[in-house]
Amino acid sequence: MQTDVTPKYEHAYRVILERLKAGRYPIGGRMPTESELAGHFEVSRVTIRRALDMLVQDGYVESKQGSGYTVLTLSPASDTCLTSFTDAMLRAGHEPTSRFVSLDHFNPGDTEIAALPSEMNDAPMTRLIRLRLVDGTPRMLVMTYAPSQLLKDATAADFPETGPEQSILRILSGRFQLEWSAACEDISPVLADTDMARTFEISAGAPLLKQACSAFDTQGRMVFHEDVFRTGTVSFNLSQSARIPRH
């Protein structure tokens, strides 16, 4: 008879992670205590602490002395530009929303995709445009590009405008099974043209920040690219240690 040789801490980690992704523990909320989880899984606190430490390492939760474990995000960043804007705003107590603008399809050589990285110019591409708002104020205009074969049958209904599931990272990985392991990012200042000024309700020529992010799979193939135009500033947290993705 075959027995399950999965370590108890690994089993607890996977079950807790499934509950996180199912929305059992809300972003910004506290996790059950070590004692409560240890009792539920019928393991020692040392075992459950190891499982929780794995979630901390992966970026899902944080641990603070005297405060227990708090849920940070459902889409941990493997790179700077893959941080979930939705989760960051929810964690800060704000109300993020999305406004669907368009879903467009292009053929190789079309002028609309000419400025994309060269490897994304030799296949049909799909572009999703969404306006991201915080507490009702426009903050980011996001243009997401991906090979049309990866966004097969995509419609406006696939992109919720409210709630945690509006996160583009969760939509791409959940609805369309896109997977990535690395990314590169370029940040540059731009000036708002007439359309951008109208979108952000600012003056034409006002400064904006442009973030261009390309995500790659384990074979080094580009999975998607985003051009993000935003008001305000961007802050980065740097660490000497990197998280190890778990599958």
Description:
By secondary structure, the chain is α+β, with helices and mostly antiparallel strands. It has 2 domains: 8-71, Winged helix-like DNA-binding domain superfamily/Winged helix DNA-binding domain (Arc Repressor Mutant, subunit A, Orthogonal Bundle), CATH 1.10.10; 80-230, Chorismate lyase (3-Layer(aba) Sandwich), CATH 3.40.1410.10. It is 23% helix and 28% strand. The protein contains 6 helices and 8 strands; from the N terminus they run αααββαβββαβαββ. The strands form 2 sheets. A 6-stranded antiparallel sheet has the order 3-4-5-8-7-6. A two-stranded antiparallel ribbon has the order 1-2. The chain is globular and about 60 Å long. The two termini are 27 Å apart. Residues 238-247 have low confidence and may be disordered.
Descriptive labels:
247 residues, 2 domains, 6-stranded antiparallel beta sheet, 6 helices, globular, disordered C terminus
Produce the secondary structure layout.
Layout: H1 8-21, H2 34-41, H3 45-58, E1 61-64, E2 68-71, H4 85-91, E3 96-106, E4 125-134, E5 137-147, H5 168-175, E6 182-191, H6 194-200, E7 207-216, E8 222-230
Helix pairs in contact: 1-3, 2-3
- Radius of gyration equals 20 Å
CATH topology name of the largest domain, in short, is: Chorismate lyase
Helix content estimate = 10-25%
Q: Numbering strands along the chain, what is their spatial order in the largest sheet?
A: 3-4-5-8-7-6
Indicate the overall shape. globular
Largest sheet, strands/sense/barrel: 6 strands, antiparallel
The CATH architecture of the largest domain can be given as: 3-Layer(aba) Sandwich
Structure annotation, total helices? 6
The overall pLDDT, averaged over residues, is 85
* Span between termini: 27 Å
Strand content: 25-35%
